[in-house]
Amino acid sequence: MLFKISMSNIRKSMKDYAIYFFTLIIGVAVFYIFNAIESQTAFLNMNEDRREMIRFLTTAISGVSVFVAIVLGLLIVYASRFLMKRRNKEFALYMMLGMSKWKISALLLCETVIIGAGSLFVGLLIGVGLSQIMSAVVANLFEADMSNYRFTVSASAIVKTVLYFGIMYVVVIIRSGFVISRCRLITLMNSGKRSEKITMKNTWVCMIVFILSAVVLSYAYYMVGWNQWNLNTDKIITAIIMGAVATFFIFWSVAGMLLRVIMSVKGVYHKGLNSFTFRQISSKVNTTVASMTVICLMLFLTICTLSTAFIIRNSMNEQIEKNFPIDFFADYGKTETIDGDEYPLYSSIDDEYSQKGLDIRDEFSEYHNFHVYYDREFTLSIFIGDAINDLNGYFESFESAGKSMEPIMKLSDYNALMKLYGKKTIELKENEYALCASFEPMVDIYDRLFSDKHEITLFGNTLANHSHHTIKGYIAPKIQPINTGMFIVPDSIIDEAKEDEGLLVAADVFAGNYKSSDKKETEKIEKEVLEKWKNVMGNIMGEENVGYSYYTNTRIEAANSAVGVSALVTFLGLYIGFVFLVSCGAILALKELSESVDSMPRYTMLRKLGVEEKDITKSIFLQTGIFFLLPLLLACLHSYFGMRLGKFGLDMVVVGSFTKPMFFTAAVVVLIYGGYFLLTFFGSKSIVKEQK
After folding, report:
1. What CA–CA distance (Å, rounded) separates 429 from 419?
2. pTM, whole model, 2 decimals?
């Protein structure tokens, strides 16, 4: 009997359950898709390093899934409140007919189980289908071979999804039973007659609060948008707290000012249904200040998270080709400790290899080997002068970095390396120098210095800058643009310098391309090269007070690292972004639909007064649009300044356009958030027609 009544109730209330059911299906599908990645990619043909990355990715996703489950659980509980409120009169009728509270609770239990089972089934069905597409996305990201791929279903992801959502439904069932047990018949019968009282706040107080909040928010924007170099962890947290608190009081003050401002514009307020429409909007915003604040901040996080994920995804692949044009790069250096200070000693990769009876060049078709030098009297602080104060304010570590000697290389070595990299060479006069760097903050300072003639003294020679700009480039290939500077001087400057004039050999550098014709052969040669390097450098016999350092990087390692970072950020960003976006849309939709239920008698009264249906529809559209638009507009403003800070941080890691990723993010937000807006508008329109 209960099952029959439950099915009948669900059929009759399908339009009420539509957004609830839609949200559950999306939640289940997204949860399954991301937790099934490991199973879906088990048949992809990829090397062990990338398999290890996928295992790490799935571990990270499993951890984030706990957080996602909590967010979705709170969303489901919130949605159940709307459905309970929607059916107060129905429960009152059951009680009047003699149905006990525990039977009503059993009825709700039956309905929840049916809805839960249905959403789980449909969501898993959609998730299984879309996860096959996710496999293709993973294959593209990890450059894997899909020739052995076959359709799969992840049993572990299904179990995890059913378990997590089962716990959520149990919480909803317990809560619903508790609410029903405390209900009184008279309260249920009069629920539709109670309306939200509009509290008219003092307009002047609201204006003062709004101005103060805007000032605080502007200062927080300045901190993260234009003063990034002075930021540290404490200041970032302070800016976040200031932004969150200011957001709350902006919504609080707007809720108090909105109706007063509109009422003061007589031509607008008294036109059509505007007086009714803006009173409705004011009432909604007044009663949802906290919710609006949370939704605004969640939308802000969603926009920033999705944008960052898309930016890193797009730029990482480009940077591998752009910033790592060779197969292998290595440097080796020796230092001597004297009175606690370290000084470079002459180092030679060839000498170390020859002692083992080996030659590093055997596996390379083209290469270049050269030394990097120091001048004892030439440091960063000496080069940039007063600008070192800027850096000392920006980075605590630059106080000591300013005392470090700056690396120098010969012009012939630079040009030979650029030919190997496939980049432009340069020409210098005997009294000129050039500076190559890629780290944007340093490049900005260097270019400031180069706007005028900037001379330096190296090994007793006075040299003028080659041009008014820094050469944007690198010596050591890396995915990130973090080359802080390499000075290039004519060969004669180095050749004629002597150790007693400050000449020091900083490191011996080797760069080259393997003797290979395809990817498999490249991987095979790389293993041999790295094993030989480890055998030589890892077995250097130590000397008293002498230290050794060596570094290697390869295009394959750089690509694997880029793919790993890109995959982790992309998938976690999409996972959290989608869930937050769905949660924001669903919360606003349910709140708006709940308000529409409470406002049904008002719309009935409008019809009795002769208001046309098209005007009522227009009023509902405006109410829904403004209700959805308010948190989104402020979130977009937050995101602009948040992404300025993000761009500042990302410029140190990635290089690429922010335009396309931002359009992708906008498309996702419009698709999901806009979809909830349309569902809410049509749902509200349907609800207010019930008493037509």
Report:
1. 20
2. 0.72
